[in-house]
C-alpha cells in the first residue's frame, strides 16, 4: 500500500494518474495548502521542502519519496511499467519528463501566479510567462506531429506534461493552432485511469465556472499563499 500526500494541483495529479495507470493500491491523504498543512513537522519529515506531492511506500519499509518527477520515476521502476528499461528508451522518457519539470511546470506555474493570484497586475510578467508557456506548447505540438506520444509508447513523460498542459486555460494560455497537441490531449483525457486520477482529489478549476463560489474560494486561498510567501521573503 502507498500513502499519497497530495492536493488538487497538476503536480499532485501527475502522481495520482500514475498510481491509477499502474493499478497500485494507495491511500489518499489530502493536504489543505491554504492552511499550510504542507509545512507541518509531520509532513516536513517526509518532504523537507514542504511541497506536495509525496508518497510513502509501505511495501518498501515505509520508504518516502518527494518531488513529483522523482515519484514518477520511482513508481515506473518499481513496477517495470510506463518507462522502458533500455538506456535509450529510458533516456527519451526522462528527457521529456525533465522538459516538463524544468519548463512547462515552472512557466505555467508562474503564469498562474501573475495572471490569477498576484495582488497587482504586472502585465510584462504576465506576458512573459504566458508567452513562454505557449512557446513550450508549440515545442510539444511540433514533436507530436510525428509521434503519437512523447517518447515512444505512453509513459510517465506523457502523464507529467499532460497534467500541466490540460490546465492551460487557468494560466490564460490557449492551444488554438496546435492541432497535434490537441489530439494528444484528447487521447490521454479518454483514458479511464486518467479520468480517475484527476479526481484524486478533484480540482475546483475543472468546473470551468470561473464565477462560481468554489472557484473564487480556491483563487482566494492561492492568493493568500502568494501573499504569505511575499511577506516571508
Descriptive overview:
- The chain is of the alpha+beta class and 233 residues long.
- The protein has two domains: 2-79, Glutaredoxin; 87-197, Glutathione S-transferase Yfyf (Class Pi), Chain A, domain 2.
- 55% of the residues lie in helices and 8% in strands.
- It has helices at 10-21, 41-44, 68-79, 87-117, 123-144, 156-165, 179-189, 192-197, 213-232; strands at residues 2-6, 26-30, 54-57, 63-66.
- The chain is globular, with a radius of gyration of 17 Å.
- The mean pLDDT is 92.
What layout of secondary structure does this protein have?
Blueprint: E1 2-6, H1 10-21, E2 26-30, H2 41-44, E3 54-57, E4 63-66, H3 68-79, H4 87-117, H5 123-144, H6 156-165, H7 179-189, H8 192-197, H9 213-232
Parallel strand pairs: 1-2
Antiparallel strand pairs: 1-3, 3-4
Helix pairs in contact: 1-3, 1-6, 4-5, 4-6, 5-7
Amino acid at each position: 500500500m502507498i500513502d499519497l500526500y497530495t492536493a488538487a494541483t497538476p503536480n499532485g495529479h501527475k502522481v495520482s494518474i500514475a498510481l491509477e495507470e499502474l493499478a497500485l493500491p494507495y491511500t489518499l491523504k489530502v493536504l489543505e495548502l491554504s492552511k499550510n498543512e504542507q509545512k507541518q513537522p509531520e509532513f516536513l519529515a517526509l518532504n523537507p521542502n514542504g511541497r506536495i506531492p509525496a508518497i510513502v511506500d509501505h511495501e518498501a519499509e515505509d520508504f518516502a519519496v518527494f518531488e513529483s518527477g522523482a515519484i514518477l520515476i520511482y513508481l515506473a521502476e518499481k513496477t517495470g511499467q510506463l518507462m522502458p528499461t533500455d538506456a535509450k528508451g529510458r533516456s527519451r522518457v526522462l528527457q521529456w519528463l525533465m522538459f516538463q519539470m524544468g519548463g512547462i511546470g515552472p512557466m505555467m506555474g508562474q503564469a498562474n501566479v501573475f495572471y490569477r493570484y498576484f495582488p497587482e497586475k504586472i502585465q510584462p510578467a504576465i506576458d512573459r510567462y504566458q508567452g513562454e508557456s505557449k512557446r513550450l506548447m508549440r515545442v510539444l505540438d511540433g514533436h507530436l506531429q510525428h509521434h503519437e506520444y512523447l517518447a515512444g509508447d505512453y509513459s510517465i513523460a506523457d502523464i507529467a506534461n499532460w497534467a500541466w498542459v490540460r490546465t492551460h486555460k487557468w494560466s490564460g494560455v490557449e492551444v488554438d493552432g496546435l492541432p497535434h497537441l490537441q489530439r494528444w490531449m484528447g487521447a490521454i483525457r479518454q483514458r479511464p485511469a486518467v479520468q480517475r486520477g484527476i479526481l484524486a482529489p478533484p480540482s475546483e478549476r475543472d468546473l470551468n465556472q470561473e464565477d462560481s463560489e468554489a472557484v473564487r474560494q480556491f483563487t482566494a486561498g492561492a492568493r493568500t499563499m502568494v501573499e504569505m510567501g511575499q511577506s516571508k521573503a
